[in-house]
Amino acid sequence: MNAPHPLAAVAVRAANLDDPGECARIDGFVAAHPDATLFHRPQWSRAVERGCRQRAHYLLAERGGALVGCLPLTEIRSALFGNALVSAGFATGGGILAEGEAAAAALAEAAWALAARQDCAGVELRGGPIPAGWHASTGTYSAFSRPLPAQTEALLASLPRRQRAEVRRANEYGLEVTIGRDAAHLAAHYRVYAESVRNLGTPVFPKSLFDAMIEGFGDDAEILLVAKDGRPLATMLTFYFRGLSQPVWGGGTFEARVRSANDLAYFAVMQRGIARGCDRADFGRSKLGTGPYQRKRIWGFEERTLTYGIRTVDGAAPRAVNPLDAKYRLKVAAWQKLPLWLANRLGPPIARGLG
Fold it and tell me: Which domains occur in the chain, in start order?
């Protein structure tokens, strides 16, 4: 009787994201893994690197030549917030994606070794398994999602009564909803999004990030715009992944509140998801206690508290990038008062370091 073959060891290496064949192989693994997210796709890492000039490190775990795990990492470097490896950078999720504990452990150790080589003070995993010995950070963010009916006609009836009224109210204003990936939609999206985050007191990401996402994801990404007489009021940049409609960056102007344009944007995004064959909508994460957090609760979305895995050098405190932190309160208030043109000029260099 032959002795059983020992299981091959797991080896971890860096992926070459400039190789289309390598990216296709990763994308195939991600598409087949039940725990995968949009943010594990190599397109995300490439777009972040191009759009924010923060280096992408994509780790692959292999056993006997077979791909058994992956971990997208963005090397966030900031004079204000410090240096860290983040999975996934500028995303609401990510983390270790693996087949089995051995592959997951190998990826975690490789990430920690990479952080030391790149002089990063810590590693942040936004989802996936939390490695042994890492700190579990919870209570800052919640994620919101909901199932989608099979037919658009059933969508309005499935909303809370108050939100149905807001959608009907928005329609009385004669708002226009358009969807596109062209330069005009990108420009309008950035104009609205920049005003929205300025009003919240946070710096805006560079426009090049959104341009790179639209280019990198092709038909799997698009911009929905709500306008009145040609004036853009509300917008969402939405991605599609395995039957999931996932708006990641959205916002509205002050006028949007008056005309219920934000509510119409939420509704129209779900309509669009149904039209594209999606059975679920994921509205991303929001910080507890913020306006976006309260708005998503009012919409009746399913709430799930997020837990992230963090490891820092010598147990030091992790990066402090939460604008709700008491030490940022005065800075947030001051930022809200900036003229939009100035906030748009000062914001992107700061926001690149948030990750």
Answer: 10-133 (3.40.630.30), 143-303 (3.40.630.30)
